[in-house]
Structure formats: structure tokens, C-alpha cells
Design goal:
This protein has 550 residues and is α/β, with parallel strands linked by helices. Helices cover 45% and strands 17% of the residues. The strands form 3 sheets. The protein has a 6-stranded mixed beta sheet, sandwiched between helices. A 5-stranded mixed beta sheet has the order 3-2-1-4-5, with helices on both faces. Helix 5 packs across helix 10, helix 8 packs across helix 10 and helix 15 runs antiparallel to helix 16. The radius of gyration is 27 Å and the shape is elongated. The protein starts with 12 loop residues before the first strand and ends with a strand.
Length: 550
């Protein structure tokens, strides 16, 4: 008799998170309680895959690492399905982010395993770590510095219970430094000094950002997450008469950290592997990891380190809950991270906010009224509406560079700007939607189009860009004139589908004549040729009396 997979209790929802790191792949299956706005961990496991072991000449993920990754991800997918997870949220970090064949690896994962993986930027990785830590610790009113030492990067974050204040990511990690700098062990004294100086130089910018964002006179708590911090806690606790059962909240003072680092530096690899409280894989890379931690504590003038057992994978669960509208209270400010980061980027590029809001409102109205006509977004993701809003807010940001070709400069500015809360794929899609809201349609030779991977993502970009084109065409004046619009499907005598768009003007000011929308109707009709080419629909525009204007 076939076994029925265990599912969440009534009213509860199960979701899985996979963190594809440089050293390990982590799986977490969580049970979410929408009523309590919380989650509990059903299962958590880690597999050491060492994706950071790349080809020394090309920098590509090696064939062996890819095979280990595929084997582990297949296991994670099947395990999540067996536990009744309704969705698997997945993020890949520095190893995949930096490898020339990283995107090919993710494409193969999607095609062969059916897992859609978000390739997250360094700052976005830091934000997800912050969310994970916030879900497991009470920050109160005190600022916290969070350090996450991974295999390929180190994230340093300054945050409080309301929001993250500084999100940094530095390209130093335990696997990377072990591979690039350590040739013999125990480390010779001069080599150790060189490595410490290298770490200090690499961390300087991140530490400066955190210090600049630190409130005057405050004394922040330093929180350590992930493998290196947990290993330090395990080594320290092993020396206690009654070691704790869990390391969440475990505190190590600076003196204890220094003692452990000194002991590890004096050991051979064989001696480290003999330590029962850390596994063999961690023993191989722990020296550069603890040197990063020790150097960071010195630079941050931290007296102690508090360990948190939650990090990026829990952050993925929290982020999923935020997107589903299942969190409030201390996470409420984070629920608007997408809107706030778009607004911030628009402000930094001098975008006219009132005008951007008008175009965004028109674009969203067109989206809602043309579902199943100009787009089928609900059939392949359903997130186009959010991306359309973001692109509408930013579509004119390139005007201050060159008014004639501002859509191309807009693409560049969005592409290389910072959009927190968006995966790398979504970030590129927002940039491309804004890029194609005017002039020519996408072409294969365009870099902005080549970077959009997958048929469904390209469909979303093409259809959302068409809607943004129409919305932008309707806002040509410095003041608002349109109260609303209506879209009605048509079918011409020759069998070709069409759309009739009617416009409503705002009421005139007292004593003024009715507003003439002739300019907006003319501008809208100028899009007819592109609409027909892109969608196969003939665009019709209703005149002031509702009649169809040719």
C-alpha cells in the first residue's frame, strides 16, 4: 500500500527553503501558521557539496561539484515533496554567482529537476540573513551587527528590530581563502600575518559602512551565524562542565575566541579532524573562517560574540511569508522592502514621483483589464504585475543622461542599481521592461534581452513592456488629466482581434472648459502598429463621445 506523504495540520502550510552555498547546500522544511504569523522547523539538513571547488583556469564550477550539487538538490526536492511542501524557495549565493557557468548550472537545475533558483546578489543575501536572524532573536531597541562567514563571501549587517541599516557582502570566505592562500599547515607565522592583513583589507569597506550607519553612542551586539560561528561555539562549549544542548544565544567573549584561534592555528589538519565536536569537512576550512571572525571582531571592537542558529535558509522562509502577506508586527517594515527600494532608487536618479505614480497606476489598470488578452501572466508565474509597477516607477530614470535614448540609459541604471527584495532574474526583468517601453521591440542581439533567461520570463517582459508603453503614452503632460480608462475586447470583420480603449478625463477646475484628451488619444493611437506586431491585437481608441476613432 502506497504511503501518503505527511502534510501540514489543518490551517497550517508547509514550505521548503534551499540555500545553495559555496561549501554546503542547506534544506529547511517549515510549517507556517498563518494565524500566529510564525513558523516552526519540521526538518533541517545540510550536505557538503563544495561548489566553491572551481576550475583553477576558467573559474567554472567543476563537473564533480556540479554532479554533487545535482545529487543533493534532487534529494532536497524529493524530501520536500514527501513532506507535503506547497512550494520550494531556493537561493544560490557567491559560488554560483561568480562562476562563468553558474547560470548554465541553474538553467540545467530548472530543466532537469524543476527547481527555479533565485541567484541573489551580495546585499540581498545579507538581507535574507538578517530576516533569518530576526526570526530567531529579539533585538529590542539595541542595534545588532550580524556576521555570516560563508564559503565564498562574508556578510556584515547592521540592523535593529525595525530594519537593516547596512547590508554588505565581501568576497572572502572560508573555502575561498583555504583554496587561494593556504599551502601548508600549521600556517607559518609570516603566512598567518599576511592572511590576516588580507582579511583586514578586504573587510575595511564593509566595516566602514557599518560604523557610518551606527547611531552615536550606541553599543551594538555582535551576532555570528552559520558554520564558523557554530563551530566556535561547539569548541568553546566542549570545555565546559555542562555544555548547552543548543547554541542559540550562546555567548563567547573575545578572550575565548582568541584562545580557540590560537589552538587551531597550532594544529595539523589531522589533529583538527580528530576534534569530535566539529565534522571533518568543517575541520578542513575552519582556520581561515576563525581568522575572519577574529579580525572582524578586532576591527569592530566587539567584546563578545553571540551565536544565532538561524541564517539565510530561515530568511528565505520569512521572505516567503512576507510575500504571502503572512507576517506583521516586527516584520511589517520589511513587508514593504520592494516598494521602498524602488522608491529609493527612483529618488536617487531624480525621477518625478508624481508622474511615475500616474504611469504606474495606468499600467496596473491596463494589466488588470487585459488579463488573458495582452498578457497571460497568471499562467507563468503571476508576478508580472509587481515587476510592471517597479518598471513604471523607474522608466524615466535615464532622462537626466540623454533624453533621446533615455530608455537605454534607464536599463543600465536599473541593471546596475540596487533593488533589495528582488532576485537577480527579477531585477533584470524590471530593467528590461523599462528598456522596451519605447522605440523598438526586443531583438536577439540586445544584451538586455539576452540576459532574460527562459521563455516564460521573456513573455512576461515583452507583455509588461507593452503595457508600460501604453501607460507612458497616456501621460504626456506635466499635470494629471486622466481619471481612468476602460478596455473592451473587439473582433473585427476580418476576424482579427482588437482592443477598444476609452479614456475618462478628470473634472475641470471651476470655471474652466472640459479637458480635451485629444493629445492622449493621438499618443495612444501611435502605439497601434507596435501593439499589432507584438500581440496580434488591433488597437482602437474611443473618441470624446465614445465612438471608435480610426
Amino acid at each position: 500500500m502506497a504511503q501518503i506523504p505527511p502534510v501540514a495540520s489543518a490551517g497550517l502550510r508547509r514550505v521548503a527553503a534551499i540555500d545553495i552555498g559555496t561549501n554546503s547546500i542547506h534544506l529547511l522544511i517549515a510549517e507556517v501558521d498563518p494565524e500566529l504569523q510564525s513558523f516552526s522547523v519540521v526538518l533541517a539538513e545540510k550536505s557538503t557539496t563544495r561548489l566553491g571547488e572551481r576550475d583553477p583556469e576558467t573559474g567554472d564550477l567543476s563537473a564533480a561539484a556540479i554532479e554533487r550539487g545535482f545529487r543533493t538538490l534532487r534529494h532536497c526536492r524529493d524530501l520536500a515533496a514527501s513532506h507535503g511542501a506547497e512550494q520550494i524557495v531556493t537561493a544560490a549565493t557567491s559560488a554560483v554567482r561568480e562562476a562563468p557557468n553558474g547560470k548554465d548550472f541553474l538553467q540545467a537545475v530548472q530543466e532537469q529537476l524543476g527547481l527555479e533558483v533565485d541567484l541573489v546578489s551580495g546585499p540581498e543575501e545579507a538581507r535574507l540573513i538578517y530576516l533569518g536572524v530576526l526570526s530567531g532573536m529579539s533585538f529590542g531597541e539595541q542595534p545588532h551587527m550580524i556576521i555570516d562567514i560563508g564559503g565564498g563571501s562574508t556578510e556584515l549587517i547592521l540592523a535593529d528590530s525595525r530594519d537593516s541599516r547596512a547590508l554588505t557582502s565581501t568576497r572572502i570566505g572560508a573555502v575561498r581563502l583555504q583554496r587561494d592562500f593556504i599551502r601548508e599547515e600549521p600556517l607559518p607565522d609570516e603566512r598567518r600575518k599576511f592572511l590576516q592583513a588580507y582579511i583586514q583589507g578586504s573587510l575595511e569597506s564593509a566595516v566602514a559602512q557599518v560604523r557610518a550607519a551606527l547611531p552615536a553612542g550606541s553599543k551594538p551586539v555582535l551576532v555570528g551565524t552559520s558554520g564558523t560561528a557554530m563551530a566556535l561555539a561547539a569548541l568553546a562549549a566542549a570545555e565546559e562542565a555542562k555544555p548547552p544542548l543548543k547554541f542559540q544565544g550562546y555567548r563567547l567573549d573575545r578572550q575565548k575566541v582568541d584562545q580557540i584561534v590560537a589552538k587551531l592555528l597550532a594544529m595539523t589538519p589531522e589533529q583538527r579532524r580528530a576534534l569530535s565536536v566539529i565534522n571533518e569537512r568543517r575541520a578542513e576550512i575552519i582556520v581561515p573562517g576563525v581568522l575572519i571572525m577574529q579580525t572582524a571582531m578586532t576591527m569592530l571592537q566587539a567584546d563578545a560574540l553571540v551565536v544565532c542558529d538561524r541564517a539565510l535558509r530561515e530568511g528565505l522562509i520569512v521572505d516567503w511569508m512576507l510575500r504571502q502577506g503572512l507576517l506583521g508586527d516586527r516584520f511589517s517594515f520589511q513587508s514593504s522592502i520592494r516598494q521602498r527600494t524602488v522608491r529609493h532608487l527612483a529618488q536617487s536618479y531624480g525621477v518625478d514621483r508624481a508622474q511615475a505614480d500616474r504611469v504606474a497606476e495606468l499600467a496596473v489598470s491596463l494589466y488588470d483589464q487585459t488579463r488573458g488578452l495582452l498578457h497571460h501572466d497568471h499562467e507563468y508565474g503571476g508576478y508580472g504585475r509587481q515587476l510592471l509597477w517597479a518598471a513604471a516607477q523607474l522608466h524615466t530614470c535615464g532622462k537626466h543622461i540623454n533624453i533621446a535614448a533615455y530608455h537605454k540609459h534607464t536599463w543600465y541604471l536599473i541593471r546596475y542599481g540596487e533593488l533589495l527584495g528582488y532576485s537577480q532574474a527579477e531585477h533584470l526583468m524590471v530593467a528590461a521592461i523599462a528598456r522596451y517601453h519605447r522605440r523598438g521591440l526586443p531583438k536577439k542581439r540586445h544584451e538586455s534581452w539576452q540576459l532574460i533567461e527562459g521563455r516564460d520570463q521573456r513573455r512576461t517582459v515583452a507583455s509588461m513592456a507593452l503595457l508600460l508603453r501604453l501607460a507612458a503614452a497616456l501621460d504626456r503632460r506635466p499635470v494629471p488629466v486622466i481619471a481612468g480608462l476602460e478596455v473592451v475586447p473587439l473582433r473585427d470583420d476580418d476576424g482579427v482581434n482588437g482592443l477598444l480603449i476609452s479614456l475618462r478625463s478628470l473634472p475641470p477646475a471651476p470655471g474652466e472648459p472640459p479637458i480635451d484628451l485629444g493629445l492622449e488619444r493621438w499618443s495612444l493611437r501611435s502605439c497601434a502598429e507596435v501593439v499589432l506586431e507584438a500581440s496580434g491585437f488591433r488597437l482602437r481608441v474611443a473618441g470624446p463621445d465614445g465612438e471608435m476613432v480610426p
